[in-house]
Write a structure and sequence with these properties.
By secondary structure, this protein is α/β, with parallel strands linked by helices. It has one domain (38-157): TIM Barrel. Helices cover 44% and strands 12% of the residues. Helix 4 (61-74) links the parallel strand 2 (55-58) and strand 3. Helix 5 packs across helix 6.
């Protein structure tokens, strides 16, 4: 859920408002709120962490690298998602930093991620990004290429969502 108001004013008030909306509509389903912290300074993220929120999304590897090592020292249970496109030359840093990569969209990237996870001895949850509208300006694999990508990927690197 993307609610720009959640971090522009009082971040904690925005978080509570979004959580209330999720709870009202969840109807018994488990819903995980990924608070998008891109372009926000550490000072805007800390109040949310202090309030108990632990799942954050960043759009860029280099921005996460500047913020999250410090935050992980203080909040070791936080979960960080990469929600922006990933270039293969940033795979090493992405595997080291992120717990979840939501933007897998090609075989070359899948191969690079699998190799790097093996090298680092770390498992990162991966989600395939599908461009369902097949819009040229948006990232993600075309729907008709999805089966081929899934067939290419090592099954051990993909975990089902709970």
């Amino acid at each position: 859920m993307n609610d720009e108001r959640s971090m522009d004013g009082d971040p904690l008030q925005g978080l509570r408002a979004v959580e209330a909306r999720i709870e009202a509509s969840a109807k018994g389903r488990k819903i995980v709120l990924v608070a998008v912290s891109k372009t926000k300074p550490i000072a805007a993220i800390r109040p949310l962490l202090d309030a108990g929120h632990r799942v954050f999304g960043e759009n860029r590897v280099q921005e996460a690298a500047a913020k999250y090592p410090e935050l992980r020292r203080d909040y070791p249970d936080l979960e960080l998602h990469l929600i922006g496109p990933l270039q293969t030359n940033k795979v090493r840093d992405a595997v080291a930093l992120f717990d979840v990569i939501e933007t897998l969209d090609r075989a070359k990237l899948a191969d690079a991620l699998a190799a790097e996870m093996t090298r680092q001895g770390k498992s990162v949850r991966l989600f395939i990004q599908v461009n369902t509208g097949e819009e040229a300006q948006k990232a993600g694999i075309a729907p008709q290429e999805l089966a081929s990508l899934i067939g290419h990927c090592p099954v051990s690197n993909f975990k089902s969502r709970d």
